[in-house]
């Protein structure tokens, strides 16, 4: 299966990129690099893709397990190499779950299934970076 996107230059350092679903997003860079911060930065967007991929897995698995949480967020940190081309050599994904009486065992199982089996973006990251994951449970 192939995915195809089109990315169109919109002037200066701004680009608009589509998605097979028809949604679009803007890509830009910082003023020190000639842009206006009017869009998402390409490398940081990769971290968002990683979180989005895994988050979709986790929510889907929790729904199938009939496990509910009040809130869920992921914080992803990427460490860039010093030399060009700069890429993420280490990435940490922190999963934060919030709620009363959290079923920590099932939630951790959902995270593990995403990390180890289902998240294709995480597998892509593993090809060039050390990926670490942590799960945190917050009682409300």
From TrEMBL:
Q: Which Pfam families match?
A: OsmC
- Taxonomically, the superkingdom here is Bacteria
Q: Which InterPro entries match?
A: KH_dom-like_a/b, OsmC/Ohr_fam, OsmC/Ohrsf
- PANTHER family from the UniProt entry: PROTEIN YHFA
Protein name (Swiss-Prot/TrEMBL):
OsmC-like protein
User: Which species is this UniProt entry from?
Assistant: Kordia algicida OT-1
């Amino acid at each position: 299966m192939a995915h195809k996107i089109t990315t169109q230059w919109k002037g200066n350092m701004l680009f608009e990129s589509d998605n097979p679903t028809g949604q679009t997003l803007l890509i830009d860079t910082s003023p020190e690099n000639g842009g206006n911060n009017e869009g998402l930065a390409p490398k940081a967007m990769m971290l968002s893709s990683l979180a989005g991929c895994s988050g979709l897995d986790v929510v889907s698995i929790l729904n199938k397990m009939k496990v509910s949480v009040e809130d869920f967020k992921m914080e992803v940190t990427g460490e860039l190499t010093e030399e060009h081309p700069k890429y993420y050599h280490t990435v940490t994904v922190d999963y934060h779950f919030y709620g009363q009486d959290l079923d920590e065992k099932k939630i951790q199982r959902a995270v593990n299934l995403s990390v180890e089996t289902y998240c294709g973006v995480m597998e892509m990251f593993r090809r060039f970076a050390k990926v670490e994951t942590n799960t945190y449970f917050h009682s409300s």
